[in-house]
């Protein structure tokens, strides 16, 4: 976070930064996608859940960027 005043140090200690843990930890929880069913358009759960993890990463990064800008 920038204070906007000269002479003030920049600090990155925002509580919003904790949201960036979500896209790191979520794909590590293997019990979420350790299944073949359900299938979506013929693809097993693993593949479309990986795409959902990408979306979670993009959304959480965007939220943190906007809130700490």
UniProtKB/TrEMBL annotation:
Keywords noted in UniProt: Membrane, Transmembrane, Transmembrane helix
Pfam families: DUF3311
Highest taxon above the source species: Bacteria
Protein name per Swiss-Prot or TrEMBL: DUF3311 domain-containing protein
Transmembrane intervals: 16-33, 45-65
Keyword Transmembrane helix: yes
Keyword Transmembrane: yes
């Amino acid at each position: 976070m920038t204070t906007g005043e000269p002479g003030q140090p920049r600090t990155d200690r925002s509580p919003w930064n904790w949201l960036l843990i979500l896209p790191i930890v979520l794909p590590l929880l293997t019990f979420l996608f350790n299944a073949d069913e359900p299938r979506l358009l013929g693809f097993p759960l693993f593949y479309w859940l990986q795409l959902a993890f990408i979306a979670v990463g993009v959304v959480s990064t965007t939220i943190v960027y906007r809130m700490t800008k």
